[in-house]
Amino acid sequence: MTDSIHYQKVDRDSAILQVYPMLGQYQVPCTESDTVQLPEVEIFTPALDKYTIGQHVQVISEKELEPFQGLALAEYLQQRTGLFLRQYGPGMLASLTMRGTSAGHNAVFWNGLPINSPSLGQADFSILPVGGFDQVAVHFGSGGALYGTDAIGGAIHLNSKPKFGGGHQVQVASLIGSFGRWNQQVQYGYSNEKFSSRSRFYRNFSRNDFPFRNLSKMGTPVEFQENAQVEQWGVMQDLAWNLNSKNQISTAVWWNKTDRQIQPVIGSNTNDTQQDQNLRWVLDYFHFGKNKIWNTKTGLVKDELIFNIKAINKTTQYFIATDLDWDIHPKWKSKSGIRHTYITGDLDTYQVSESRLELYQSNNFHPNEKLSFSVNLRQLIYERNWAPFTPSLGGEWNVWKNKTQSFLLKTSFARSFKVPTLNDRFWVPGGNPDLESEKSWSGEIGLKHVIVKNNFNFEQQITHFRMSVDNWIIWLPNGSFWSPQNIRKVNNSGLEYFLDVTQQFGEWKLGLSGNYAWNQAINQTNISENDRSKGKQLPYTPEHKLQSMFLVEKGVISSFLNTQRVGERFVATDNASKLNPYQLWDVGVNYQWTLGGKVSGNFGAQINNLFNTDYQVLRLRAMPGRNFQFNLNITI
């Protein structure tokens, strides 16, 4: 007997996304009937996909993240994407740069809550473990009109996915690797058609005592890295209730603690330490009406950073937001919302509180099957200061399409902004409360080509972008201390290329994926008579980065070969000195297994930096050579 399930047919704007699991995702057990009829429900697409017409959003699935469970998100993004992260060593501070912008020009969200530090203005990707979420969505390009402050270069969204109708489930994962790495994660979940609960605990540890060449000594002897140990713990709890066919409540809490010895630069013997503690909580209420959905969200993000035991910095962000997403007409969709944020900062040199209010409006319009447009608007007010009004406009045109292939032309124009950080405005001494928001204008155009024929799938996309960032904040000497000024202007331009190819030959499946990023971030301003930075590439911004992966699968066994090449990086603004380009290779194999029909899992082995390349991401920051890891995941 062949069982089948019939689903309600929906269009692109009604498709279920995993960003927000909706009521239609029940897993209905099979009965003696050949067909199980699911009840008709209202479902919708969140703003991340629905209103980003003309831009590129890359969604990284739970399956793609699985080999990186227990590792930091920084490691995945550095190895498997065209994004570049400035890493101060394995497990040390890792800051993201997108399209040549700085670390503070990229917004980061967890289940819809912005988690960039309001004091530092950025997120540390080395303390965001992959085990803390189920999906990553990368929005390339300006997103200020959709997300608010910081999203000048792009945005990263980390999402949990409640699952319904799954019964009891236990998962245990363990990873053992070189240099004392040992990561564990335990997860228990229970769900039926009305209720979903999942609890997760993880602990990650690494001594990071890898060998490196000490360039500060005669003969560059090989030594072992000291004072670089990292230990991390975390607990997560996800809950969701389908109250009835029109109402759903979901909540998630995430506590994370990281203890780190700060890896010194080569030639130094400092013994600095840092402790990070983060608490994040979110509560969502959804009401499903006819052709509309109302969402109310509240939550908090609490961060504590302790440096060398003595310097204690605490910030807390409280959020409440509500919006209405509705289909005005089959060709016209709209979303209106408001968000209030209250921020407190208790740092060594200052204490401050601040309120922010944001109004936003998004629309998309589909005049016919070939054309789509989106318009987004946002206005933020903080402590009686008006951030730049932020619009964006995007369009897509299906240039040509037949049964096997299609060409899609995409373009967008946008404005974005970054509110000065608390440190920029209130640090003592030197903070400048008169700073203006950084602002940018950007435009992009791209072409997407898709071929689907029999067992062959081919997808490629190329995008050209240009961006101008003004009022860029930098800290300059001011007598006996430093102070920030809106003095720099930077022009960014470049290309992004994405490729994904798969071919099925019976039981064999071959895959090739890759991406290439060409980024020029050229400073347009000299800050003094002796400054020679005008017309030069920004420091630690590689002009070229290439990543590709070849995958082979047969039945329960799969293997991959992955490589990334990072171009030269200049050390200072005058481009007088630079770091050499480097290329790293990784290879791995994975075996999936089942036992008695009730227990399943997978075992994987991986070699990183296969050819033992000696390289530095940042100057005098040692990185590990060839290293190994083995992971075992069990599901009951």
Q: Using the 3D structure, state the CATH architecture.
A: Beta Barrel
* N-C termini distance: 27 Å
CATH class: Mainly Beta
The share of residues in helices is: under 10%
What structural class do the secondary elements suggest?
mainly beta
Describe the structure.
By secondary structure, the chain is mainly beta. The chain has a single domain (13-635), classed as TonB-dependent receptor, beta-barrel domain (Maltoporin, Chain A, Beta Barrel). The chain is built from 5 helices and 36 strands. The strands form 6 sheets. The chain has a 22-stranded antiparallel barrel. The protein has a 5-stranded mixed sheet with strand order 3-8-9-6-7. A hairpin with a 2-residue loop joins strand 17 (273-289) and strand 18 (292-307). The two termini are 27 Å apart.
